[in-house]
Amino acid sequence: MPSRRSPLTGVTYMSHDPTVLSIPAGFTLGAATAAYQIEGAAAEGGRGPSIWDTFSHTPGATVEGATGDVAAGHYHHVEADLDLMASLHLDVYRFSVSWSRVMPDGEGAVNAEGMTFYSELVDGLIRRGIDPVVTLNHWDLPQTLEDKYGGWRGRETAYAFERYAEIMGQALGDRVAIWSTHNEPWNNSFAGYGHGVFAPGVKNHEEALKAAHHLNLAHGLGVQALRRTITKADAKVSIVLNIFRVEPETPDDADAARLFDTVANQVFTGPVLDGAYPQDLLTDTAAFTDWHFVQPGDVEICHQPIDLLGVNYYEIMHIRRRRDHDVSVEAMGGTEFPGSERVELFRPGGFDRTAMGWTVEPWGLENHLVDLSAKWPDLPIMVMENGAAFDDDVIDVDGRPTVLDWNRTQFLIDHLTATLRARERGANVSGYLVWSLLDNFEWAAGYGPRFGIVRVDYNTLLRTPKSSAQWFSDVCRTRTIPTIIATALPA
Ligand code: NOJ
Fold this sequence. Notes:
The protein is an alpha/beta fold. It contains 15 helices and 17 strands. The site of 1-deoxynojirimycin has 9 residues, from loops.
């Protein structure tokens, strides 16, 4: 039975923990994607441009100038992709709506062709017994709203989001099982408007904090709009946060860890889940802003009751106080944030790494879920994203292209096991979704990193389920975690 040992804590972590070999009844399994990362057809079907179209077409913004113009071609392969999902026996499929596909200017006229695409996708899922999980904002803001209001820097964008949420609730609210307002607003605001490595490429800490606040406000307004319009009785409303698992290197680094937790996590969980921006946040960011953009009554709007907290987990954030201002810090998306001159995010040696360079630490997920549930005991949690990029080799088995991705499969075994162990320790965690169904456009990193359990050949758009897809399909079908991964190898 494989085991892993944390080089930091010495904790030994067993894969295939015999106590969690079964998937508990009612536990949700699925796979996730996002519109700009898979759809392509960027200028088809009446879709308007988004900030990611503009950004990815800006020279130097993405690796090798990659864009989402074609991506995984999902817009034109939707029927085949639905059949693929059915063959994987998914309980749910998480996708995002391209706001500029349904409302090309972000507000005003609805593009019927765009709306039909999502409505048929939802129907196609339900026909196959798969519940739709919909994200409204997975970063691809309509360009018009960037031009008119400064995007998320402008308060008006939060109100445009409210109207968009209302229109989506009216259109799909009779069928969608789970709604999420935003996906990872941290990257949306701090990487997009502060560090400038994501669209729209603005580098200004105050603008990032403004964007974060307007995302929080939009979340609250969006929840209210969904509640007004959705009619499916048991539909759930959520937000997906990449709340970071923050671990200080030594006790002397505790304040650095506190600072990162405040600026990266509590800037969202404060208003959205706890009903206030914490005083620490205002103090820690005082050199950059006086928070004048928070108007009376805003925080009450942000603080709406929600049914589910979506959590994305990839790795532990190891933190230490910055000792040497010349130290070279590994590039991590969103590393520059208010306070980053005092805090260092680092990746310790000794861990397995993914193709992104991220450390593989499944125990982080287990402990994180337990701690998050202890903090918000009444809020069910769903792991809305977990997965890994690895360099895949396509080999030929009996004349068929095959990808034997044991590393990704092992990663998923460990992290699904971690999720179920957390549940056994009392975490209120109700599901686990793999990122991603398909290889796709990994934002500024382009098409190099492959996160899919299904390979996409970007020349032919041919889909090839990898061994990890076979394994996940077995998990979903048998409701157990197979301990022996069988794949036909050439004799
Ligand atoms: C977070 C994002 O939600 C998703 O879009 C991205 O591709 C994955 N994590 C991997 O970086």
